[in-house]
Amino acid sequence: MKTFRHWLFLPTLLASTAFYAPASHAAAELLAVGTLTNPFDLSTATSGALENGVAGNTLGGIGSGLAWAGGSTFLALPDRGPNANSYNALVEDTTSYISRFQTVNLALTPVANGNLAFTLTPTLTATTLLSSQTPLVYGTGALGTGGTNTLGSGIPALNATNNTNYFTGRSDGFAFSGTTVVGGKTLYLGNSGNPNNARLDPEAIRVSNGTNSVFVSDEYGPYVYEFNRSTGQRVRTFTLPSNLDITKLSPVGATEISGNTVGRVTNKGMEGLAITPDGTTLVGIMQAALEQDGGKAIRIVTIDIASGTTHEYAYKLTTGSGVSEILAINNHEFLVDERDGNGLATNGALAGNAAVVTQLFRIDLNGATDVTGLSGAAALNAVAVNKTLVLDVVSALGAKGIAADHIPSKLEGLAFGADIIVNGQIEHTLYLANDNDFLAATKLPDGTDIANPNTFYVFGLTNTDLGATFTQQDIPEPLTLGLFGLGLAGLGLSRRRAQ
Predict the structure, then answer these.
(1) pLDDT above 90 coverage of the chain, percent
(2) What φ, ψ does residue 466 adopt, rounded to 5°?
(3) Which 8-state DSSP code applies to residue 330?
(4) What is the pLDDT of residues 139-193, one digit of tens each?
(5) Are 319 and 357 a contacting pair, CB within 8 Å?
(6) What residue ranges of the chain have pLDDT lower than 50?
(7) pLDDT of 64
(8) Containing H/E element for 259?
């Protein structure tokens, strides 16, 4: 049995380290689970109805990306918005939902007795909308002209109010120079990586070191953009390798996929993004193999932040069908979140089936082969980075009594938080968050309704668990953090948990 007695903050380590003791360490273990059930975010200016009738400030999907911002502050990223309500198949029911990130406080509190060592109380503190200084290309509405699917332009009304250009999730927000017909379907000639495109499907977010910036990767381009953290305005576009782009575009994913033989697969672009702890390098990872690669060969792209120079490396899937995130352990080793899409989901086809694969693998890019000039699964798999399983999330959650059909299928957000110390031994808190597709409930196979909120899971891992020496990112602490530890020093609590 394990006994936990003390939780306190030392003044010299207030920003990043909490303590509880005494205890001996077991394998990586679930420490806390918390949910954020607010129906709306804090952007009241976007509260008007979207094209599908859903409020434009609906809170959801915020586990698409997760980034630590110091102390108990995290940035949570929703993807392209609520599109579960059918209204127009020509844009796959996507809407002019304005791209944004949420700032949340994920405060851990020790539990005297209970199944988990801590309670986690997520609190929404800010909503930041993403925009461009320069004009963006939105939909024209022409796709539905003359029929029952007539569309508006998709330009957010807030553009005129604020005299700005907001990114949105609607799939027809791209520039094109002409059309072509492939397999009887019309596609639009252009470049999916055009930074003038208004469409943005954000999937990962990271905070910069020492500057007021965040980095966001997306699936539509794929893109990697730098935004001002305070204003949400884009300040930089990183040029990614051209082999990731497609040149025949469509608002309908299946049509795009059928029309291209090179580039990212629709809705499976740059799903993950890491930043090295020294703040010099971004590391993006695609969700699935490029059209020209196929199979289980997935590309990793490193970006030197100062120069924009890129390199590509190969990652081979094991049992998962795709990758959801990548997270830096130190400046050369990373965790990769590999999953198969099973579990508590929010589309009717998958709702409530049992989770099988959500696994975190450690990889090392030191000495890895640059695959920029290679193509095809065989060539990439032959030089793929080595990988080692660090955490089987489904097994770890199951060990705490969470049924497999209650485990979200889309555990996509991944971030290290503040360290804690157990019996003089440092443990690193690892936060996972789900993308609930903006739906607060779904159904089990027997028809039972089940809650599916924005959920955060916290694990504790040592360097031994990671198989590597962890390096914390150097992020300036929020000005308000100094108040966080007041009154906590010396607080004594007792609790027990089974080994």
Answers:
(1) 72
(2) -75, -25
(3) S
(4) 977 664 444 556 888 999 999 999 999 999 999 999 999 999 999 999 999 999 9
(5) yes
(6) 1-25, 144-147, 348-350, 478-499
(7) 96
(8) helix 253-259
Q: What local confidence, expressed as pLDDT, does residue 452 receive?
A: 84
Q: Which of 265, 336, 330 is nearest to 300 (CA)?
A: 336
Contact 375, 291 (CB under 8 A): no
Measured from the Cβ of residue 17, the count of other Cβ atoms closer than 10 Å reads: 15
Q: 333-339 and 358-364: which strand pairing?
A: antiparallel
User: Residue 233: what residue type?
Assistant: Q
Angle at the Cα of 64 from the Cα atoms of 135 and 286, rounded to 5 degrees: 80
Spell out the domain ranges in the chain: 2-126+201-239+269-497
Write phi, then psi, for 305 (nearest 5 degrees): -65, -40
**CA-wise closest residue to 154 among 217, 228, 105, 87:** 87
With a CB cutoff of 8 Å and minimum separation 6, the contacts of 333 are 362, 363, 364, 365, 366, 468
Query: What pLDDT, on the 0 to 100 scale, is given for residue 142?
Result: 66
Task: Name the amino acid, one letter, at 295.
Answer: G
Strand partners, 227: 214, 234
CB distance 127 to 42 below 8 Å = yes
In this prediction the pTM is 0.90
Contacts 24+ apart (CB under 8 A), 484-490: 484/9, 484/14, 484/71, 484/72, 484/107, 485/9, 485/11, 485/14, 488/7, 488/8, 488/9, 489/8, 489/9, 489/10, 489/11, 490/8
Q: Looking up tokens 């199944």, which residue turns up? A: 115
At the top level of CATH, which class does the domain 2-126+201-239+269-497 belong to? mainly beta
Residue 474 burial (CB count, 10 A):
11
Structure-token pair, residue 255: 């049509």
